[in-house]
Amino acid sequence: QYATTGCSLTLHHTEKPKHEAVCEYRPYSCPCPGTSCDWEGSLEAVMSHLMHAHKSITTLQGEDIIFLATDINLPGAVDWVMMQSCFSHHFMLVLKKQEKCEGHQQFFATVLLIGTRKQAENFQYRLELHGNCHRLTWEASPCSIHDGVSVAIRNSNCLVFDTATAHLFADNGNLGINVTISMC
């Protein structure tokens, strides 16, 4: 199905649907969580789409930044999104708050590369929360935006913490997460 965009595999018809679901050459969906954006396009068009359709997303330059999630006490499911640009690539930083069990909310923080799975293997990220005598750190390889935030959460490829932990590190309802991107 994606031969016109670069896929050169020839598969038996029974293997084709499974491959098409994960094919690197399939169109990219809008990676912005928490929106009902139906945009699809090439990898090269993702950043242009984000800058024009999702203007509220802030982009910071550099390998070391602070991702500030404001008003973490907002009720219900909430997504905070920011972009980080370094090493000639763009990374989407996501903090997602959702209810896991009756009244029990969890936070999920992860980094996605605006790029392919193969490109994502070249990077590592570190998320750090700092507080009075406390530090919480998570290190991992970013996922590709082809996989998305839900796959990162489903595979536990993210920093997970509960509301009590969020409050331990928050300052007046705002949570600062130090984000460091490095090359492998």
UniProtKB/TrEMBL annotation:
<protein>
    <recommendedName>
        <fullName>E3 ubiquitin-protein ligase</fullName>
        <ecNumber>2.3.2.27</ecNumber>
    </recommendedName>
</protein>
<dbReference type="GO" id="GO:0043161">
    <property type="term" value="P:proteasome-mediated ubiquitin-dependent protein catabolic process"/>
</dbReference>
<keyword id="KW-0436">Ligase</keyword>
<dbReference type="GO" id="GO:0008270">
    <property type="term" value="F:zinc ion binding"/>
</dbReference>
<keyword id="KW-0808">Transferase</keyword>
<dbReference type="InterPro" id="IPR008974">
    <property type="entry name" value="TRAF-like"/>
</dbReference>
<dbReference type="Pfam" id="PF03145">
    <property type="entry name" value="Sina_TRAF"/>
</dbReference>
<dbReference type="InterPro" id="IPR004162">
    <property type="entry name" value="SINA-like_animal"/>
</dbReference>
<keyword id="KW-0833">Ubl conjugation pathway</keyword>
<dbReference type="InterPro" id="IPR013010">
    <property type="entry name" value="Znf_SIAH"/>
</dbReference>
<comment type="function">
    <text>E3 ubiquitin-protein ligase that mediates ubiquitination and subsequent proteasomal degradation of target proteins. E3 ubiquitin ligases accept ubiquitin from an E2 ubiquitin-conjugating enzyme in the form of a thioester and then directly transfers the ubiquitin to targeted substrates.</text>
</comment>
<dbReference type="Pfam" id="PF21361">
    <property type="entry name" value="Sina_ZnF"/>
</dbReference>
<comment type="pathway">
    <text>Protein modification; protein ubiquitination.</text>
</comment>
<dbReference type="GO" id="GO:0016567">
    <property type="term" value="P:protein ubiquitination"/>
</dbReference>
<keyword id="KW-0863">Zinc-finger</keyword>
<dbReference type="GO" id="GO:0031624">
    <property type="term" value="F:ubiquitin conjugating enzyme binding"/>
</dbReference>
<feature type="domain" description="SIAH-type">
    <location>
        <begin position="1"/>
        <end position="55"/>
    </location>
</feature>
<dbReference type="InterPro" id="IPR018121">
    <property type="entry name" value="7-in-absentia-prot_TRAF-dom"/>
</dbReference>
<comment type="similarity">
    <text>Belongs to the SINA (Seven in absentia) family.</text>
</comment>
<dbReference type="GO" id="GO:0030154">
    <property type="term" value="P:cell differentiation"/>
</dbReference>
<keyword id="KW-0479">Metal-binding</keyword>
<dbReference type="GO" id="GO:0016874">
    <property type="term" value="F:ligase activity"/>
</dbReference>
<keyword id="KW-0862">Zinc</keyword>
<dbReference type="GO" id="GO:0005737">
    <property type="term" value="C:cytoplasm"/>
</dbReference>
<dbReference type="GO" id="GO:0061630">
    <property type="term" value="F:ubiquitin protein ligase activity"/>
</dbReference>
